[in-house]
Design brief:
The chain is α+β, with helices and mostly antiparallel strands and about 180 residues long. It has one domain: endopeptidase domain like (from Nostoc punctiforme) (endopeptidase fold (from Nostoc punctiforme), Alpha-Beta Complex), CATH 3.90.1720.10. It contains six helices and seven strands. It has helices at about 5-15, 55-60, 80-90, 105-115, 140-145, 160-165, and strands at about 30-35, 35-45, 45-50, 65-70, 125, 155, 170-180. Strands 1-2-3 form a three-stranded antiparallel sheet. Helix 1 packs across helix 5 (about 140-145) and helix 3 (about 80-90) crosses helix 4 (about 105-115). It is globular.
């Protein structure tokens, strides 16, 4: 049994906060084809998938802010091959273990992988601990207990908060979605 997206989101955000106060728990890439905006990403419920922007936004139950980043100009040449690679990975399952060598791809691992040939992102030692207490967060303890494996503290990996702080990227804007207002 896998945890809900909300439980994972909270645990990811709590353990991966940065000094820049980012609060991201998910990452994807945008592809525009024939005036349609698609989000390619990996989610616990769908694995690696492609959704229209409206499908992606309406999957949220409440108000959510979505930040949009782009690679700096000197790295833009990496985007077309990354998009091509992104499509080849559609249908892969979600990697609930967050261990790089395990089958499937978690959201950040997916983005890392599609840009790997251009070394846009790097792996860093993962942590599943509360930065304030240095204790494992209860959400992660429960998650790994259900999986029946040890918490992979210190193993290589990546996360949305860490990727957002890359000097190779810049924030270009934010979209606020309030699905409650549409009801």
């Amino acid at each position: 049994m896998s945890p809900t997206s909300g439980e994972l989101s909270k645990a990811i955000d709590q353990a991966t906060q940065t000094e820049q106060a980012t609060h991201f728990d998910h990452i994807g890439i945008i592809d525009i084809q024939n005036d349609t905006v698609y989000i390619l990403h990996s989610s616990p419920k769908k694995g690696v998938c492609r959704e229209t922007m409206s499908q992606f936004f309406f999957s949220y139950k409440e108000k959510v802010a979505i930040s949009i980043y782009r690679l700096n100009d000197s790295y833009l040449k990496a985007v077309p091959p990354a998009i091509q690679k992104a499509y080849t990975l559609l249908g892969q399952p979600y990697n609930y273990s967050y261990i790089i060598k395990e089958p499937g791809l978690y959201c950040s691992e997916y983005i890392y992988e599609i840009f790997a040939s251009d070394s846009i992102f790097t792996f860093k030692p993962m942590t599943f601990k509360d930065p304030k207490t240095s204790q494992f967060l209860a959400g992660w303890v429960d998650h790994y207990k259900k999986l029946g494996i040890p918490i992979p503290e210190g193993e290589p990996g990546c996360n949305p908060n860490g990727m957002a702080t890359s000097e190779k990227m810049e924030m270009v804007g934010e979209v606020i979605i309030d699905n409650n207002a549409l009801k």
